[in-house]
């Protein structure tokens, strides 16, 4: 439908109504999240916080879960703005921005300076419901600047950040921010490799040379072996691939699985194997000693490696902890006669290892999937089914 034709106004009215309805739903959600947080409801499912529960059970990203929790907390301190949110006049994005002004530290500072928070709340609300979002951002920042006009010399490490995003093909994008000193250190390290690796006829762009330099810096650090150990092992590049794919001269796309979840071709796995160790792991009686019986209580490095390959991280429902956060747990406790074997083991992070020793239970199914039960015998399902929208009645 072209602009100016009849019906455009109705469509735009529908859009505005839907935005208002979404604002009201977001407000209800934020209040529900806050109520769940205050009642420590995530403990029922073995999790420590609402943010972790939202990530594991509702498939929210870490950033979205944290923002929702912060918004729920802010509703208590900004009642006028919260009421506008309830009415659909203020957005969740506006609430999240205003929440920056009512963190515990800033609330304490406001009390010390005699700030009337009701006045601040009214000012935020007036801007939120009547002016563009950018105006509210400016007003909130102005308030924060007035609240702490001088402030202590900032800790440079507090401003450092790095966000990694893995794509479906296994490639990695990242964005970040460094303070001047940290940025200088990174540039010095990268520039050394950029300038040392400039062969004749090099057609790479500056961005490509910097990318290669960053990978080379990582290679060098991993090769030196000076990084902190993870569960007793040096950090290393790991690829899991069937031996048939490894020796097959064909390319074999997506044949290998790397430690952080990316998949690579068999050809790339063979390339990595040229300068690495190849370990044979067989899940059976003819390979590594996976079953140590009753002679040893502690899991051997063979069992741990096999458990990491099989489980990929903490198996407790709703938890995404990586392998290096995990212990190897006896499903049937050793003291109760359980064998020290792969079949009797599960990877659990420290928190959920403790939970399992205090009434929770995990069990591996014949299909290879894991299930988790609460102490009362009810199952924790993840992700929890999200209620579908009601269907419109048939015409």
TrEMBL record:
Signal peptide stretch: none
Location of the HNH nuclease domain: 302-354
Extent of Pro residues compositional bias: 385-395
Gene3D superfamilies to which the protein is assigned, alphabetical: 1.10.30.50
CDD domains: HNHc (cd00085)
Region spans: Disordered: 368-395
Similarity section: Belongs to the Rv1128c/1148c/1588c/1702c/1945/3466 family.
Full protein name: DUF222 domain-containing protein
